[in-house]
């Protein structure tokens, strides 16, 4: 087992990894920017190294600075968390060249899944259902039009290197295509330094459903079931739950089986998430794979009792799946996660600043993953996620009522947060009935405006 791990991240996920290290008896090394000097991940790590000024490019995304810290601290491995360098194949390569274990899949597999049209082709080859679309990158708006005619409108143009919902455009008719194609291309070039685009059939009112997998380095892959993440705003997740009310045990088993075979064939290691859209006939279609731990991993942990981050570390150290899991995967109850962002709850503008009061809820079935605290400051440079509130119940109704009371008991003052928005969503009849899709928030906000 590793003796020392560098946590190449900040905020709640850095703390989450530090928790796993502590439970495994591994020393954790934090890195931090000058803006994060007083952060809890620095406080709870065994060692901490300042790696630069607040700007991401000069600190958490600065590969030479991160690697230097790892060498100074003499660590065995690096856990990248999510975001930042977690899906950077080049970073994984540099780690390997420096004989530091990157806790994740190989650089080749990260690269394959990072080029989304190539990932689509790989999944299709192994029998994973994908949406009709272009075979590979589209070279021009003329080619885009040909594909769109073949697939049928509406279509969605997407960035090959996409992430965070950027570089995506829904096209409903031929006339709009050239303009939207150019918009997607310039947005993708600006955001990812890569303007490659591909195209898929656009699914009306889809549900976003994703499968969590763990794969060891000996060819064993297990599926830990699904999470439903249909409550999204601007294609970014806001509420996630497990299980999905629309996934039957048969479908769960069927998709789990296909994914296990596929990931074993592509040589996948460590934790990963395969994202699907579900159409109105309850069919699942692959959209992309994330080769890292996800923000919403706690809902799976709550219903399976598997510690995914500890599993990642054990797998990277060479453990076999049977030793990691120590028994079959059993799903019990229902869990929901609300992402608490430092944002204005309706305008969705970031709200950095000093937190004056911070009272997280507790009690049976409630988990809060956060690095925020009273008198602490939310710097303006980073992601707006400040806490993840997770509630588990014996069924969906109990999870919802537990989440409702936990949101009532969550006090954050000094900055705006999404807590009031979550309280209203949890009280909504459509949400409570499980009638959700990726357009839920838009309709929900419009409904509220209509009412007053
Ligand atoms: P990103 O990597 O930018 O997050 P994804 O491919 O994961 O992009 O898609 C993000 C979200 O965009 C999905 O959860 C869904 O809401 C919407 N979306 C993506 N592809 C489609 C599609 N083919 N039809 C309808 N909605 C889509």
What does this structure look like?
There is one protein chain. The chain is an alpha+beta fold. Helix content is 36%, strand content 25%. It has helices spanning 11-24, 40-44, 63-73, 89-97, 107-114, 116-125, 141-151, 177-192, 249-266, 297-304, 308-316, 321-325, 396-408, 419-426, 429-433, 440-451, and strands at 4-7, 27-33, 47-52, 77-79, 101-102, 155-159, 169-171, 197-201, 207-215, 221-233, 236-242, 270-278, 284-290, 334-341, 353-354, 357-359, 366-370, 377-378, 385-393, 411-413. It has an 8-stranded antiparallel sheet with strand order 13-12-9-10-11-14-19-17, sandwiched between helices. Strand 4 (77-79), helix 4 and strand 5 form a beta-alpha-beta unit. The mean pLDDT is 96. Adenosine-5'-diphosphate binds next to strand 6, strand 12 and strand 13.
Short summary of the structure?
With 452 residues, the chain is of the alpha+beta class.
Give the amount of beta strand, in percent: 15-25%
Remind me, CATH topology of the largest domain?
D-amino Acid Aminotransferase, Chain A, domain 1
Radius of gyration, taken over Cα atoms and rounded to an integer in Å: 21 Å
| Number of distinct helices | 16
Major β-sheet strand ordering:
13-12-9-10-11-14-19-17
Main β sheet profile: 8 strands, antiparallel
CATH class of the largest domain: Alpha Beta
Number of strands: 20
Oligomer: single chain
Number of domains: 3
